[in-house]
Amino acid sequence: MNASSPSPAQNQASTATLYGGVTNRRVTVRDLAAAKQRGEKWSMLTAYDALTAGVFDEAGIPVLLVGDSAGNCHLGYETTVPVTMDQMVMLSAAVVRGTKRSMIVADLPFGSYQESPAQAMHNAARLMKEAGVGAVKLEGGERSARSIELLVEAGVPVMAHIGLTPQSVHALGGYPVQGRGDEAAHQLLRDAKAVQQAGAFAVVLEAVPAELATQVTEQLAIPTVGIGGGPDTDAQVLVWTDMAGMTAGRVPKFVKQYANLRAVLGDAARAFAEDVRGGAFPAEEHSFH
Ligand code: KIV
Questions:
Q1: Sign of the C-alpha dihedral, residues 248, 173, 108, 100?
Q2: Which of 63, 66, 69, 87 for mutating ligand 1's site (highest number of atoms within 8 Å of CB)?
C-alpha cells in the first residue's frame, strides 16, 4: 500500500453508512464528510450522563453532544452561562465512558475560549485529555475563526455554532430567530464561510430561517447541523430532554417530542410511593431470608 492508496479503515469511512455501517469503532469526522458526499442525513442528540448516552449509542445516533445546555437541562441553571469547564469535563467523561461508537463532541462553555486562541486551546485540550472527547464545539462565526484555526492546526476537530448562540442570551435579550433581513442573512453566510475556511468539520445553524439554512448548506462543503433551521441541513440536532419529553414546561417551536418521559417517570414514582404506603412493596420476591 503506498501513501496515496486508502487504508482499509479509510475505505470503510468512505463506503459505510453512518447508521449500522460503523460497528466496531467510533464515528469520525471522515465519516461525517463522506456522509455529506453521499447526501446521507444524520442525527445528533445531546447527552449529559453515561446511562442516557449509552441508550443513544446503542440506538445508532452517530454524534452525541455534551452541550452546555447541560446548564438548563441537567444542572438546574436558567441559562448555559454559568456552566464551568470543570462541569463540562465531568459530564463529558461520563458520556465517553457510557458509549462505544458515537463521536462525542463537547461544548466549550461561556468564558472558556473567548479571551484568546490560547485559552481556547488550553480548554479544548482539557476536554480531550481529561474527558476523552473526539471534538469540541464553540459558538461564533467570524469572531471565533482565529481560535478555530489554532485548534484545527493543533489537531482538535472543531464543530462551529452560528445563528442563535445561547451563550450570548443576555446580549441578544433572549433567544430570537437569527438571520432575518438581508444584512443579517449576509452576515450568517459570512460566518458560515469563515468557520469552514478556519477548518471546522461541521457547523451548527440554530434558529435561522429554513431558506437561509438551505442556502448555507448548499454553499458549504462541510456538513451543516440544524436546530430550528428547517429540513434541508445535512444533519439535525435536538436537546435530548426536549426530544424525549423530559423538559418541564414549554419547548421551542422547532422541537418534536418523540416520547413523554416526564409523565412515564412521574407515573412510576407515584406507583412506587403508593405501593410503599399500602405495603405492597417490597413483596416476598423482593425479600431475603
Ligand atoms: O448546548 C447545546 O445543547 C447546543 C445545541 C442546542 C446545539 O449547543
A1: positive
A2: 69
